[in-house]
Specification:
By secondary structure, the protein is α+β, with helices and mostly antiparallel strands. The protein is about 45% helix and about 25% strand. It has 25 helices and 26 strands. It has an eight-stranded mixed barrel with strand order 18-19-21-22-23-24-25-26. It has a five-stranded antiparallel β-sheet with strand order 2-1-5-4-3, with helices on both faces. A five-stranded antiparallel β-sheet has the order 7-6-10-9-8, with helices on both faces. Strand 3 and strand 4 form a beta hairpin. The longest helix is centred in the N-terminal third of the chain and has 31 residues.
Amino acid sequence: MMQVITMMNSDINRASQSYFYPFEANLLSNLDQQLQDALRELADVKYALDQSSIVAITDRRGVIVYVNDQFCKISKYSREELLGQDHRLLNSGYHPKSFFKEMWATIGSGKVWKSEVRNQAKDGSYYWVDTTIVPFVNANGVPYQYISIRNDISGRKRAEEALKASEEKYRLITDNSSDLISIIDEHGQLSYASPSFSCVLGVDNEELSYINLLNIMHHDDQDRVHFSIKKKETAPFSMEFRLRHAKGQYVHVEATFNAIAKQASNHARYVLVMRDITERKKSEQTIYYLAYHDMLTDLPNRRLFMEKLQQGVNQAKQERAKLGIVFMDLDRFKYINDSFGHEIGDICLIEVAQRISDCIRPGDILARLGGDEFTIMLKNITHEDEVIAVAERIRANLEQPVQIEEWQHHLSCSMGIAIYPEDGLNPDELLKRADTALYAVKGQGRNGFAFFNKDMEERSLERILLENELKKALVKEQFYIDYQPKVNLSTNRIVGMEALVRWRHEELGVIPPNKFIPIAEESGLIVAMGDWVMLQACQQNKQWQQMGYPALKVSVNLSVRQFNQVDLVDKVRQVLEQTDLEPSLLELEVTENVFAAIDNAASILTDIKQLGVQISIDDFGTGYSSFNYIKQLPIDVLKIDMSFVRDIHHNKESQAIVKAILDMAHSLNLNVVAEGIEFEDQLSILSGDGCQLGQGYLFSKPLSTEDFERYLKTSNYPIDQTNHPSA
């Protein structure tokens, strides 16, 4: 290009110096103007090209004869270093020989060649250029020089490589994840499915693109899931449902839906991540069955009955209906166990359970509370005669002897009856008054039934005394706190302590908690008592830290009555501020029955949890709650009730329940504390099943403040520093 411009300027100069006739002079003048205009246009093009592109000219052998400033800038070579060289000077080694062979074949035939080339600059760095090489050919069509025009695309290539690396990373994640990862539209149609679908659902990968997720879902889950998808929520949401395996069985999955930004089609799409939770569901079902059913008779046990009774009371309250509660036991059943052995006694109990079941109406609930005690909830009764009819059928049915081998065993029963709402407004009151009526029947000779009446319920002098004295106990400062250590079972190190309220009356001496706590609950005094215990326990814990003892977590029990306080969360916050105790060093223990008694218990726990306080479910497995929503509660610890631990070393049923609870807790990342550990055999089984923490007389009985300090100094179970906030 530069040569052309130079030659044209030379011709114009020679022409302007010649002598022409006037006509020819005019013609030359016009030609001169046209050439000048053409030169200006060419100069403008050259300027624009130099500013925007990287330009080089080579001869027919590829030797560089011209480069512009942009070429020098990107290659970091000076013009003197480039002229006379060929482009091998810039070869990065990235492209194969065939790449350049094809280039020379193209431009050698007079054709334009375009491609993207990675070159190497003088300092060793690499850059990418979008390259166009234009051959200039002579009259015979043979190239005599080449002009290359390049544009720097290094930034774009880096972005492409980063995107490719990112896509590869996510492809590796999705291809190797055990989770089921997919993209679905609002109708459930799969557009992508990870290889894990084949492993988990037994579906051929080639079939996945034709599958609609809703079509392989359990029919009971389809409408619920489809409704949630159709809502087109932008925020992530989670659900559980079941997918059909290729062999027909169903796989439980826990799924998270994340909405993808809408495309031009305006159709909603979701990234769906599903995790197989079938084993966890089986564990939950096992726990539920073992903890809520009597293993001998297969009837609901006390826990399930109390849960059903709570539901029945709630429904009856809404519908202004009545319930009948029958509390019954077998008369002189101890004689059968003592005379013929517990195996014969168990056979009798199985037969009794079946006979009672034959006497109740569909929808009524029969449960075995334990031993020879049974309870029945009769729903939607309109008159006492309906309850009497059921009781008469049961009594008549049990009068028929039970034949076991060559022996006939004659049975009878006593029944106490309470009616909702006349005799009580909650499950505990109803069961208590039905029990009171039962003992009235036994006192009258057994083998009958009676309805509760208030004359049966006489309050003892001791109870009256205790309730009156409880009201004075706080003022007189008769309460004090003992502390029972909690121990890491694998390291034998102390991780915390439970604060246990005690009452020392000035005349009656030390009164057992099982005598005064129920009275405090019923009278409402438990609220003031509980507030005092929380404040004292936090103050003492902080004081021990100031004395140089390592930070330990103190556990404090919260009652149902305390949960009914509208200012509970504020009270907890005030105690923490007043004592300056680190919130993570306070653990509040609640029992499962708070969830049956208080509708917003979960939200209250969430507010407490947000303070930084730990939450523990006490006496786990003995309350009314459903295992299905334990995972949804803001809790940190499950405390296995001591009734399961007490006989775990020789009772397979207790072992199975504890093992199932531990498996479920571990799947939900919850810690587990076993209460009431007294023997090495119990400790061995619990440790073997993966229980982390425990407390009981094997380690220490509850200790006074002074004794607990001595325990910290002299105990064989050193303090576990890993559980302190500073660790």
